[in-house]
Amino acid sequence: EAQVTQNPRYLITVTGKKLTVTCSQNMNHEYMSWYRQDPGLGLRQIYYSMNVEVTDKGDVPEGYKVSRKEKRNFPLILESPSPNQTSLYFCASTASYNEQFFGPGTRLTVL
Amino acid sequence: AQTVTQSQPEMSVQEAETVTLSCTYDTSESDYYLFWYKQPPSRQMILVIRQEAYKQQNATENRFSVNFQKAAKSFSLKISDSQLGDAAMYFCAVGTYKYIFGTGTRLKVLA
Prior knowledge:
The structure holds two protein chains of two kinds.
Chain A: E1 4-7, E2 10-13, E3 19-25, E4 31-38, E5 42-51, E6 54-57, E7 65-66, E8 76-78, E9 87-94, E10 100-102, E11 106-110
Parallel strand pairs in A: 2-11
Antiparallel strand pairs in A: 1-3, 3-8, 4-5, 4-9, 5-6, 7-8, 9-10, 9-11
Chain B: E1 3-5, E2 10-14, E3 19-21, E4 24-26, E5 33-39, E6 46-52, E7 60-61, E8 64-69, E9 74-79, E10 88-96, E11 98-101, E12 105-110
Parallel strand pairs in B: 2-12
Antiparallel strand pairs in B: 1-4, 3-9, 5-6, 5-10, 7-8, 8-9, 10-11, 10-12
């Protein structure tokens, strides 16, 4: 089954404690991206990756890092989380015809 | 910079009736794609319909159709024969690999 998986699905952490949210896709897509969703703001793109070892900033990259060492994985790293990064995070993988496949989301709370 | 505006935060429709959700956008790209996504309470992002900007013919998927006016930069979604399961947040998105989302319209379906 074609899918995008994210882990963990829920995470409560404290300010400053480094964390990683994993994202994996099994569709051999080259393009992947991360979004955050906040009430009243829709989805905003954090980072995207056109291919292995190629990443670029989206609209809200501050406080986040990503890596793309292999095509299927695109982890999101928060080196020093802060409460304003409390949000719902989505990973997405994009087919060649531009349809995005979204993961189930990760709800992050930073205390 | 690209912008996407959904001016209706919330709409209601009677079951079996028709409703239209509005979306306007601004982009400097000459070739792009437009999407409508549905987000039910489960938070999963579900693609409803997709339109290529270079195609004049409006996309249709069963009860869902769009009215794409490229010159006016308008991309509305029409839902016919509304069903209780259509109740959700609906997001309009525009772009080519780098996507901008609107802030969403919450659709309520009244029995």
